[in-house]
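Notes from the 1:1 (GR / supervisor)

We went over the backlog. Supervisor wanted to see one worked example end to end before approving the batch request, so GR pasted a single chain during the call. The sequence is below; no edits were made to it. Supervisor asked that the structure be written out right there so they could see what the output format looks like.
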Amino acid sequence: MKDWKVLLVDDEKEFVVTLAERLGMRGIHTETVFEGDGALKKLETYEPDVMVLDLMMPGMSGLTVLEKVKKLYPKIEVILLTGIGSTSEGLTGMRLGAFDYLMKPLQIDELIQKIGLAISKGSSTN
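Structure output shown during the call:
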């Protein structure tokens, strides 16, 4: 896990900072960004194995970010975060190339398992 690199993208700053701390305590290197445009800018200098991406953000939506990431950085696996009632957006994201989606509130162990599976998939296709 120590060489896993994850980019967390969510407009809920307290949530994403806490999530980064919890992943960091488990040896997972994380970077955080609070909006879609910032995520795309971050990818110019930081290449994560996995992006954990909130679907519902002001400005650029998570689905738009996903489409751009898959076009520009196809090797990056994306796990979408959806709130209650946005399952259809999660499924749309899967059709657009997301690795998987998880409902908020998250279970940290489930997220870590999904990150591991996404990294395994990514390394098997490289």
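Supervisor's comment: The mean pLDDT is 93.
Batch request approved.
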